[in-house]
Design a protein that fits this description.
Blueprint lengths: L1 H15 L3 H17 L9 H22 L15 E11 L2 E10 L19 H10 L4 H12 L5 H9 L1 H9 L6 E16 L1 E13 L4 E9 L7 H13 L4 E7 L5 H8 L4 E4 L1 H9 L7 H12 L4 H15 L4 H14 L7 H7 L3 H14 L8 H13 L10 E2 L3 H12 L7
Parallel strand pairs: 3-6, 6-7
Antiparallel strand pairs: 1-2, 3-4, 4-5, 5-8
Helix pairs in contact: 1-2, 4-16, 5-6, 8-9, 10-13, 11-12, 15-16
Length: about 425
């Protein structure tokens, strides 16, 4: 029985371990709940009652401080203001709904801090809703979850209002100043269904920058027209990044997006455009029979792992001779992408690993897909951006995140400094 009680109390002990008295109280609450068959949370629950008592006591302390005298103190006689009963107020908390009696004063000047006027949710409730929204749950899912876990009825409209508060924060994030130079920028696009009169497939562009400290950061999100990407759209997006402070980018890694290389050249003339080799290999297999995938992947690896451009050209000529007759589209794909494929061959292996794939963005895109999979389509652009923004900035403990510091960055920075020198502005 003691072991059961200790196991049940573990969550409370973790929170209250810093205060032995509170820890003992938590054990007593759990023991009482088990002995008498009562609930800890929900209507009539022990924790609900305790929370009510703590809040009401705090409110009475605030009132005494506001008036300048305690309840029943003769110092209050003729003071010009006095207590005037209470008003019931229902709050949504992490343990469910709690109804508290908020004291009033006759002058109507009392403004409590512990439970501010017009506030119906205590700290933690909004954060829980936003976290669930970022993980891909719809407003209906969240409403059902809160009802099941916390025993509180929350309308979809309230969930929408909570998440809508994110929009102001999102707009500030989208327009925040950026660094003067980024050694590496990764750019990609995903497609979402968004209503614009009718539901249409809309590209969403995402850019991740790796700064001089080796930290990955999502630079921004943009929704393009339903016709797909084009040079005009790319110039607009990259111009925004430049206007926010990015005057130079050393390497821009992308996935063969139409019109993007020309737009990069217009905005950052000195930037090296590098196609994503992993995507190039993956697209190559689209033109081949499954039985040949392993052999073709192995032979293409010899091309992109070649020590120099000349060696890569020799490897590819031999590859084209072996496979050209059977898969001409495969050979044409590589030849048309050759100019954007070879830049990384001029770099040492450490830097190649960083730029030859947009896997950093692929990780983010996987999170985007998890957040949007249950939604079918979005009613407007802002709704889509809100979900993607939350997915981008939300960090999960003990799990890979799209942001964070690159491994072995010191070695990579030394190579970048030797290659780009004064452009990095480190001297």
């Amino acid at each position: 029985m003691a072991r059961e009680r200790n196991d049940a109390a573990t969550g409370s002990e973790l929170v209250l371990a810093s205060d032995p008295g509170l820890g003992l109280l938590a054990e007593q609450l759990v023991a009482a709940a088990r002995t008498h068959g009562v609930q800890l949370t929900g209507p009539g629950g022990l924790l609900t009652g305790l929370t009510k008592q703590v809040l009401e006591t705090a409110l009475q302390v605030e009132m005494a401080d506001h008036l300048g005298y305690e309840r029943g103190d003769v110092a209050g006689h003729g003071s010009g203001n006095s207590r005037n009963g209470t008003t019931a107020k229902t709050l949504r908390t992490d343990i469910g709904e709690v109804t508290v009696e908020v004291p009033r004063d006759r002058a109507g000047t009392f403004t409590p801090a512990i439970v501010p006027k017009h506030q119906r949710r205590l700290a933690g409730f909004d954060e829980a809703v936003i976290s669930l929204y970022a993980k891909g749950m719809t407003t209906g899912d969240i409403t059902a979850h809160l009802s099941e876990i916390y025993g509180t009825d929350v309308s979809r409209d309230m969930v929408s209002r909570v998440t809508e508060a994110v929009v102001t924060e999102m707009r500030a994030w989208q327009s925040r100043p950026l660094d003067r130079v980024y050694p590496v920028i990764l750019i990609d696009a995903i497609v979402l269904k968004i209503r614009e009169g009718t539901v249409a497939n809309r590209p969403v562009y995402v850019a991740i920058g790796i700064n001089l400290d080796g930290v990955r950061d999502v630079l921004g999100l943009w929704i393009g027209p339903s016709g797909g990407e084009g040079a005009k759209q790319w110039v607009s997006m990259l111009s925004e990044l430049r206007n926010r402070g990015i005057l130079d980018a050393c390497i821009v890694c992308c996935d063969g997006l139409k019109g993007l290389p020309d737009a990069i050249g217009a905005i950052w003339p000195q930037a090296t455009v590098q196609t994503c080799v992993v995507h190039l290999v993956r697209n190559s297999l689209r033109y081949t029979a499954r039985r040949d995938w392993k052999q073709i992947s192995t032979e293409l690896k010899a091309v992109y792992n070649a020590p120099s451009v000349a060696d890569a050209e020799a490897e590819f000529d031999a590859f084209a001779e072996r496979w050209g007759a059977r898969y001409p589209a495969l050979i044409n794909l590589w030849r048309s992408s050759w100019t954007e494929f070879v830049p990384f061959l001029a770099f040492p292996l450490e830097l190649r690993k960083l730029i030859y794939t947009t896997n950093g963005i692929e990780s983010l895109n996987a999170r985007f897909r998890a957040s949007t999979r249950r939604r079918g389509h979005f009613p407007d652009e802002q709704s889509a951006l809100k979900v993607l923004y939350l997915a981008a900035v939300h960090r999960e403990k003990n799990r890979p995140n799209p942001t964070g510091r690159i491994n072995n960055w010191t070695d990579i920075l030394n190579i970048l400094t030797l290659t780009y020198g004064d452009r990095l502005g480190l001297s």
